[in-house]
């Protein structure tokens, strides 16, 4: 445990809306360990908007990658690493990304015995706030360990179509070919954009949709994805909305939705939702 941490209990502040929190305000960046910086946002409210209750209609997880993690070793020399966090979709809470960044920055001037001790601290604190066990993996910051790869699938973005709707998300664009033979298909778009509901900053992402079922109209799907462009919602909520809308409108036998968002504040968030219990690869895209 970091120095001085024995006297610090992990704190989960009173639940409030992001707008009521200090997260959208000017911030003093702490450089000492402080788990009370972490801010939990319950998933239930936004899930209720899209008709998702306690029994989830999907499996999944949120993969976070941290690129700005550093601490001091026992002799005071800085150490850097990259971190991967896997948050199960069954966790009752999202961890707000700015609070996550502030928390990680807090290790910058903390002496930690070794990476194993740090990983245990991260696991304990983040699991407490999320309300479920989070997997933490620390790794060397090297290109060999973090190669860049493209999402597999047919690219939707080159279609010569007119688009004039940029929000709110319009599920009516989604349609299938009636009576067509069931197919298996994977599609990719780099045109996903939404906005952070706390700061209003744009969130840029690529999305992969894989399904088995009646053929989904490509033009309608692209129009639907672009309709998130002026929509305010967290990454995880956008992916769940896409999953629920595609399932409701197109009724595939199997469906997976995987979004790879670009990083902000040294963190990227990559939600995955699927009708099957799968464990997706964490491969960086060209924009990550």
Question: Can you offer a commentary on this structure?
Answer:
With 288 residues, the protein is α+β, with helices and mostly antiparallel strands. 19% of the residues lie in helices and 27% in strands. The protein has five helices and ten strands. Strands 5-3-2-10-9-8-7-6 form an eight-stranded mixed sheet. It is elongated. Mean pLDDT is 92; it is low at 3-16.
Feature tags:
288 residues; alpha+beta; 8-stranded mixed β-sheet; two-stranded antiparallel sheet; 5 helices; 10 strands; 27% strand; elongated; disordered N terminus
Largest sheet: 8 strands, mixed
Order of helices and strands: EHEEEHHEEEEHHEE
Q: Please give the radius of gyration in angstroms.
A: 20 Å
Supply the helix-strand structural class: alpha+beta
How many strands in all?
Answer: 10
Q: Note the beta-strand portion.
A: 25-35%
* Distance between the first and last residues' Cα: 31 Å
| Number of contiguous helices | 5
| Helix content percent band | 10-25%
């Amino acid at each position: 445990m970091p120095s001085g941490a024995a006297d610090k209990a992990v704190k989960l502040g009173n639940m409030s809306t992001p707008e009521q929190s200090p997260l959208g305000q000017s911030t003093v960046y702490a450089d000492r360990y402080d788990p009370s910086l972490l801010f939990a946002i319950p998933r239930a409210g936004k899930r209720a908007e899209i008709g998702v209750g306690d029994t989830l209609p999907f499996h999944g997880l949120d993969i976070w990658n941290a690129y700005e993690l550093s601490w001091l070793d026992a002799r005071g020399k800085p150490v850097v690493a990259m971190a991967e966090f896997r948050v199960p979709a069954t966790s009752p809470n999202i961890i707000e990304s700015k609070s996550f960044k502030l928390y990680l920055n807090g290790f910058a001037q903390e002496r930690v015995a070794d990476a194993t001790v740090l990983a245990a601290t991260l696991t304990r604190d983040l699991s407490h706030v999320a309300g479920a066990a989070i997997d933490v993996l620390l790794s060397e910051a090297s290109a060999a360990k973090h190669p860049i790869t493209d999402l597999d699938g047919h690219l939707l973005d080159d279609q010569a179509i007119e688009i004039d709707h940029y929000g709110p998300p319009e599920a009516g664009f989604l349609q299938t070919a009636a009576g067509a033979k069931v197919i298996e298909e994977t599609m990719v778009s780099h045109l996903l954009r939404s906005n952070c509901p706390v700061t209003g900053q744009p969130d840029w992402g690529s999305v992969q949709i894989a399904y088995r079922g009646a053929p989904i109209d490509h033009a309608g799907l692209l129009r639907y994805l672009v309709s998130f462009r002026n929509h305010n919602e967290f990454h995880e909520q956008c992916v769940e909305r896409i999953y629920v809308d595609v399932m409701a409108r197109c009724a595939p036998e199997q469906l997976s939705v995987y979004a790879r968002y670009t990083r902000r504040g040294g963190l990227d968030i990559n939600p995955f939702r699927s009708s099957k219990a799968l464990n997706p690869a964490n491969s960086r895209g060209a924009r990550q």
